[in-house]
Amino acid sequence: MESDRLVLYRQNLVDENYSGRQIGHLSIAESRLVRCDFSKSKIKAGSFGGGRRASVYRDCVFDGMRLNGVHGGYAVFESCSFRNVRITNGWFQNCEFVDCVFTGTLRGVLFFGAPLSDSVPDLGRTKNRFYGNDFSQARLINVSFRFGVDLSTQRLPKEDEYLYLVDADSVLRKIRKKIRGWSQEVQQELDSTLSVYELEASTGQRDLFIHESLVLGGEFPEARRRLWELLRSMAVPH
Predict the structure, then answer these.
(1) What 3-state DSSP class applies to 111?
(2) What's this model's pTM, rounded to 2 decimal places?
(3) Among 146, 143, 140, which Cα is nearest to 159's?
(4) What pLDDT, on the 0 to 100 scale, is given for residue 2?
(5) Which of 138, 155, 214, 235 could form a disulfide with 163 if both were Cys (CB 3.0 to 4.6 A apart)?
(6) Is residue 169 within 8 Å of 137, Cβ to Cβ?
């Protein structure tokens, strides 16, 4: 099927069917969609929320969707289904997710608990609603929850490849102390990894959810394994 464009501006749509479409560019702005079906669509570029007001998706189905490099924009997703999806390099800084279900693979995805500062005047809020979402059957690879996402209100994967750090700022300070005796070369190699988490913890993300690939990948594999085990010893069940 040849790729096409999907452009919706200030539309109020119910039970529309966009399933199976190869969408070369998505442009949805200031619209409201209820029970619309995007299942098995493939979206290559664009945004779910253009314009200066948020688009709202309620009870919409995105099952089997393939998404690569698409921005969330100003969008609200309520009780939506994202089962068996593949979302790669997705940025949802100004989006809200409430009571949504995710399965499949999310890779290189950012979720924010607060909108970007320059978006606050348009959105009229300083927090993103982000709660009641079920990620328990999804694979979350290089997925970050930032700027105050309350992880205690989400269902998260329980496999051993993940760690859940509560009060991450305190945990990371303890980790820094424990690795001081390691070689300077190893400390420098691990510094970039720890610095990323320290930055997230210092900008409002109290708890962190970490996939092992973010720690174990790189030089000095033995040292990285030791770091992973240190982090695991301070993690809590999730």
Answers:
(1) strand
(2) 0.94
(3) 140
(4) 47
(5) 235
(6) no
Query: Contact, 162 vs 209, CB < 8 A?
Result: yes
3-state SS, residue 167: coil
In whole angstroms, give the CA distance from residue 63 to residue 226. 39
Contacts 24+ apart (CB under 8 A), 149-153: 149/111, 149/112, 149/113, 149/205, 150/113, 150/207, 151/207, 151/209, 152/207
Q: Where are the beta strands (DSSP E) in the chain?
A: 4-9, 12-14, 22-29, 32-34, 42-43, 46-50, 55-58, 66-68, 75-78, 81-88, 91-92, 95-98, 101-107, 110-112, 130-131, 134-141, 144-146, 162-165, 208-211
Per-residue model confidence as pLDDT tens digits over 5-58: 999 999 999 999 999 999 999 999 999 999 999 999 999 999 999 999 999 999
Q: At what angle do helices 168-178 and 221-234 cross, to 10 degrees?
A: 140
What is the tens place of the pLDDT at every residue in 89-148? 999 999 999 999 999 999 999 999 999 999 999 999 999 999 999 999 999 999 999 999
Q: What is the pLDDT of residue 3?
A: 59
Tokens of 101: 């279900």
Q: Decide if 73 contacts 43 (C-beta within 8 A).
A: no
